[in-house]
Amino acid sequence: MTQITLRRPDDMHLHLRDGAMLQAVLPETTRHFARAIIMPNLVPPVVTFADARAYDARIRAALPQGSTFQPLMTLYLTEGTDPADVTAAAASGLVKSVKLYPAGATTNSHSGVSDFGKVQAVLETMAEIGLPLCVHGEVTDPTVDIFDREAVFIDRVLAPLRARVPGLRVVMEHITTEEGVAYARSAGDDLAATITTHHLILNRNHILAGGIRPHYYCLPVAKREKHRLALRAAATSGDPRFFLGTDSAPHTDALKEHACGCAGCFTATNTMPLLAHVFEQDGALDRLEGFTSLHGAAFYRLPPNDGTLTLTKSATPTAFPAKIDTGAGTVTVFDPGFPVHWQVTA
Ligand code: NCD
Ligand code: ZN
Prior knowledge:
11 helices; about 15% strand; TIM Barrel; binds N-carbamoyl-L-aspartate; three-stranded antiparallel β-sheet; alpha/beta; about 35% helix; globular; binds zinc ion
């Protein structure tokens, strides 16, 4: 097959940042995606309905002319989040989920949750109204090895949390392990999991063997090859509980190529061609549309998009930009390390 047309895709986990960075990275997503779940880890974070309205307005103001892209907003869960504010935000239709960051787990997560007892009431409210909780699934206990933090989170935090709040709809964000895949598969239709493009491509050797590659460092960090293969199998399986969330997370090169580099891979620019490559390699091109355009919308109870996206394969490799310029500095576009022959042509 040399051409494939899909329903226009959705990115169910995206970092757009703010200001000059927002202005520069937004077109990289809106060129291909109709909607995206917008992560709230700004400084300060998007905590209240009012914060989400204001951020939504800034995103809409930054949209390229004529774009019909729709930001799907999230609230950042804190120990002070007010259930009534969450209810109002969901009822308005603007806010589609609440994001749980364990305090200290990742970029700008210091306002996250340490004492889960303090968020019980808001989680119960969310279960009642059917609003999904998006979960960054890593424990922050410094005695737990960073490569084990997702698996330990499932046992110590996620499973007990779901038992305490029956009916809560949960999205395990950016799963990176076979334990994450197995847990998602074992659950009912109130649980789903996003998978990033880069975790389908990278294992930890890519980050660490033969020189340290800061642009491959993200959180959760890529794991062993067997885990990457489990993610590939899940993404290409056609199981509706798995869908795309790119976790495209721009940081300037100055902050990535640093003694203490920031976590995040910037994949907005070339995600769809990379996914076509991955799905073709696994003989699953016919399942790409489910992963990028149908399963996520269904979980979020949204209609699939009307428009389409066409990917075409050519004999010559596609030339993606190495970097994009932003008013805040350059951002490196994710380089998979192999030639990709697919490109978006319509
Ligand atoms: C994200 C970021 O930079 O905001 N970084 C990352 O490595 N994925 C935060 C996150 O989703 O963990
Ligand atoms: Zn993220």
